[in-house]
Design a protein that fits this description.
2 copies of one chain form a homodimer. Chain A has about 650 residues and is an alpha+beta fold. Chain A is built from 17 helices and 24 strands. In chain A, the strands form 3 sheets. In chain A, strands 3, 15, 16, 17, 18, 19, 20, 22, 23 and 24 form a 10-stranded antiparallel β-sheet that branches. In chain A, strands 2-6-7-8-14-10-11 form a 7-stranded antiparallel β-sheet. In chain A, strand 10 and strand 11 form a beta hairpin. In chain A, helix 3 (about 75-95) packs parallel to helix 15 (about 415-425). Chain A starts with a strand and ends with a strand. Chains A and B meet through helix 12, strand 15, strand 16, strand 21 and strand 24 of A and helix 12, strand 15, strand 16, strand 21 and strand 24 of B.
């Protein structure tokens, strides 16, 4: 069962530091910007049509003749849902009547789109009425429903308003009838509804939603394969028309979930599924699920994860490939996949408090997820390469997906609103509450209110600075458990100025401070922010002979703009020092640049030469990976040869 | 115009050395083996059906009802053609009544397959009668015809028998009528007939075949694009049915040939086309063609060629990608493409005598082409990777084409008979005759007879040893021009024991020895065979921080079997020595292994670690790349990190 649960999003009030700044950016820029895009009001941006699809569906439900057509991906509704969820969190943080009005009118619209029986999906209403639930493999109905359930829970929890929650309960009841009564072998090609049903169960207290989630998990991957049979009989396809076979790995449906040991297939689907599995294991105590989650966690994070927390090595199916296959240039590493990895890690943390899970949250968050968004909040990466060479990246047929610059929007726009909802709910990832224990997983400036009544404020400029100063407000005999990231070689923890011995109070990546806390008690924790090099296992062919550079949880990269345009000729000096540059509040939103002793290889103009290339000492200038590509198209590398 | 022309295949009689051994292997093992495969008599091997297709076509021509069906690729006839060509060369080297009988009965069969008007193609006769010439983009009719023309020329030149030549003249006349009279805008999606027509022109002296070639070159890539129009109107497809667009780069038809500057598209098609362009430039003196050939040569060999002489960086279209994109694991580097590169280089050498062209012939030949065949002559690589990691290679979806072991045959079996015909005709690549000058491009043991009447014998164990001793037979005032490979840092040339000063007699990679040669004159040339490291330009992202090892023209690799199973943890020592091991006649057909001073990195078990991996000095054992994969599945690398 769960050893901790996340705090409500609203329990955290943001203060200073990098993520609070991002949360503010999301609230003030990203959410309004994305609404404009979803409403097709943003000039020069890929058309979304997501709101228009809903309006068309509503008009059709009213019996109007609709001439215009559904436009966009079959899961276009989910963009709206994720935006709604982000907006809900934002409303929980600061009143915003204009935003609230937009949300309310969107809920009006969703009420109009919902059909009598609770069914709610603009694609099927507008474009394929009569084909509901007949293409679970491709059609994302349950996926969209899941995202709307999440939005409903978020809005209810942020505002106490339950209108959308009622809509989605009615929808969940419709799904319950469809899948527990009418078609008990079916489940979603894209997992999401499973984790959403558990949220809905917790928001409403209704066991049937948990049962439905358990059912979806249990039937997945049973033989004969549902999707194979469905495809053979359904007679219509969305996009796999030319292929007669079904890649069951792609949908994680080759095996029953408890038998899955290797992460395979579409990376986002995978981690969304694993999130629900871990959550359910925590709710039910199911040891089989828990064991599978452990195996899958290791498969993902011990053998198939990039140093940036990216997952999914290939564009072919946006998928995992095989262990240790982590190419840096042809990588996929979708932003959404790293977000899903954070979901999975949070659930694993709730099953057992191990710093490893929080370490992965930091790795994915401070690198791939933040890197997925331009610093101005208006452009986004879907794919997050670790090496970019203009002329090859985005150009070679094998790298058409690896763009050297963030576009303003995508036809398939799953990532941008996913970043928005994650960052605006970051408090619920930062803190966990267990049995009279508050876990501090992430270091964010601001204040959290415990369910036990006390408050804990935190002053920190993390990860720019490695120190965090917590002040206790209230009085309580309790335990505070502070995540000690594995990268911190030396951590100092003081309570009211007195240093605690971590060797006795820390275990599994957490420092436990148990005492009768008094108002004004101060806990300070200081991490070792010395920049360091990282080495990949030599089982990873792509990284042999190379090193990456980190400072705290932040992975750095070398960009052309800081290095005379040419990053490919740089190598790190094997015994060279990596130094912090001066914090520059004007540079890339405020960063600590790094300087690494290295070399510039002056290779021959010839393609191949037997002359050993001359090299000269050169200081390599590095910036956080999450800031790359903000200064125009240029070369970028995370892994540099070390010589 | 041409400064030299190849010697006839039969002018060279093989002696000692690596390539002569391969030529013998082809004659004694490969040709009989491949006949068995083509005749579906080889157990446990992918079915060819190539001969059976011809038999079916012959029966259909006789008016028999044929129940069985065409089987295999649309260009299955070309496998037979390439085999015939190889067999012709073999018959020119040694009498073999059994083989000759097979060839003669195949010619009987081809006569029966040929239709009244000269048309000859089993696919269209058996499967698509009535659709001849309607799908030039895909259907390979002209490609198959070209290969049969080459076979006809080879057989005629080897044996003086002109029965097949007559068949193919009749076929060429049919093509002439079709494309100069009926459909003058059409040309082949897969170039080959162009270079074959020039061969046919030289074998028969008939200008019309040269004219037809010139026509095919001239119409290629003209606007509007023929293939785009053909696809829009023809109403049937062979394999691109799902795609509505035509990738004109794939067939090198985006631009007229004289405007092509960058090598694009399917690599084999590209170099076959460039071969014909260079050949035609030499025949006609067309400066526009010559300029295009220079630009394309540089595009291919200065910016898109692997150190092994492989070309074609991606499986997607078996194609070139963009400059400097040379990934080692996901590479395509089809054996046929390197063979075509040798064709192209030979034509460039005939346009101008520059060592660079012969260097590329050596690079492609001694590495990718020889590596394309198992040492026993019975298994073949289509794709020639520079890095193999069992568990990833052949397994990851991005590397399904990069097999760690040679299969015995392929459904698409273009490469095996292509290797056979190249190796059995190697003499015509080794020597060129210009204006009273014999060019020695490649060093092969044996004897060549000049058109001028004298003979030049060569004793050499090249490339195992770097010396070659030539003896002149006859009397002639003439010039012998010896290729001085760019890799030889120090070359000594002696004439009758007297050392010649290369700085005065060598230019552009050739040492010119002009004198009145007497019977028994001896010229010795000794190259520097010291093993050396090679560095790629730092513009090649895949090879930064790495070095490869060569000895003479032979690229070496590290295989697991010689290195404790683990090649990924090896790195070359930056200042380390590379030494020759003792020649081992039993090892891999007789090789000089190399030992390179390097390191074994003992990396952490963790995927990423901030601990600098310990490393220990280790002697890295290397074998010629062309021998890799002959001792079971194991890791293999050409480029190793250098630290």
């Amino acid at each position: 069962m769960k050893v901790s649960r996340e705090v409500p999003v609203a329990a955290y009030h943001a203060g200073e530091g990098l993520l609070p700044v991002y949360q503010k950016l999301v609230r003030e820029v990203v959410i309004p910007y994305q609404y404009q895009v979803l409403d097709d009001k943003m000039e020069g941006v890929e058309k979304s049509h997501a709101l228009e699809n809903l309006r068309l569906a509503a008009r059709k439900n009213r019996g109007e003749k609709v001439a215009d057509e559904f436009y966009g991906m079959v899961f276009q509704d989910s963009d709206v849902a994720k935006w709604l969820e982000a907006a809900a969190y934002a409303l929980g943080q600061a009143p915003n009547p204009e935003l609230e009005e937009k949300v309310e009118s969107l809920i009006d619209l969703l009420e109009e789109v919902q059909q009598e029986d609770g069914y709610l999906n603009s694609y099927f209403t507008v474009k394929e009425p009569g084909r509901q639930w007949t293409n679970l493999q491709e059609a994302h109905e349950l996926y969209c429903a899941g995202h709307l359930m999440e939005a409903a829970c978020a809005y209810y929890q942020a505002t106490g308003k339950d209108r959308l929650l009622k809509v989605m309960e009615k929808n969940a009841d419709c799904i319950y009838r469809q899948f527990l009564e009418k078609n008990p072998r079916g489940y979603s090609g894209h997992p999401e509804v499973e984790l959403a049903l558990l949220r809905l169960y917790r928001a409403t207290g209704k066991e049937k939603y948990k049962d439905l989630c358990a059912h979806f998990l249990d039937v997945r991957g049973q033989k004969p394969n549902y999707f194979v049979e469905e495809k053979a009989t359904r007679g219509w396809n969305l996009w796999s028309s030319s292929s007669k076979t079904v890649d069951t790995d792609y949908t994680q449906s080759t095996l029953p979930v408890r038998e899955q040991k290797d992460a395979v297939g579409h990376a986002v689907r995978a981690v969304y599924l694993y999130t629900a599995m871990a959550d359910m294991a925590g709710e039910s105590g199911d040891q089989g699920l828990k064991d599978a989650c452990h195996a899958l966690w290791e498969s993902v994070t011990h053998r198939q994860m990039y140093v940036t927390g990216g997952i999914g090595s290939t564009v072919l199916g946006e998928a995992f490939t095989v262990d240790y296959d982590l190419p840096n240039a042809t990588v996929y590493a979708e932003t959404c996949a790293s977000i899903g990895l954070i979901f999975f890690a949070r659930q694993m943390l709730q099953l057992e408090t191990k710093g490893e899970y929080a370490d992965v949250i930091e790795r994915a968050l401070y690198n791939t997820v933040l890197g997925g968004m331009q610093l101005d909040g208006k452009r986004f990466f879907y794919v997050n390469p670790l090496e970019v060479v203009p002329g090859i990246s985005g150009k070679a047929v094998t790298q058409e997906h690896d763009l050297p610059q963030r576009p303003p929007w995508y036809a398939c726009a799953c990532c941008p609103p996913n970043v928005a909802r994650l960052l605006s709910s970051i408090g619920s990832y930062a803190y966990g509450e267990g049995d009279n224990t508050l876990f501090i997983h992430l270091y964010l400036g601001g204040e959290v209110t415990s369910a036990l009544g006390y408050r804990l404020s935190c002053e920190t400029e993390y990860p720019r600075l490695g120190s965090a100063r917590f002040t206790f407000h209230g009085e309580k005999e309790t335990t505070l458990a502070f995540h000690v990231p594995a990268w911190s070689e030396k951590t100092v923890l003081t309570v009211n100025g007195e240093t605690w011995d971590l060797s006795s109070c820390a275990r599994d990546g957490y420092a436990y401070v148990s005492r009768v806390f008094q108002e004004g008690d101060v806990i300070e924790i200081v991490f070792d922010m010395t920049p360091y090099k990282v080495y990949a296992s030599s089982r990873v062919p792509a990284d042999t002979g190379c090193a990456a550079v980190q400072r705290g949880p932040v992975v750095y990269c070398a960009e052309g703009v800081d290095n005379g345009g040419d990053v490919l000729s740089l190598s790190l000096s094997e015994n060279g020092v990596v130094r912090e540059g001066a914090y520059d509040p004007q540079l890339l939103g405020g960063i600590v640049p790094l300087e690494a002793e290295g070399w510039r290889t002056c290779s021959s103009q010839e393609l191949y030469s037997r002359k050993r290339p001359q090299r000269e000492p050169e200081m390599i200038h590095m910036v956080p990976y999450y800031t790359w590509g903000n200064r125009g198209e240029n070369q970028m590398r995370v892994w540099l040869p070390e010589t």
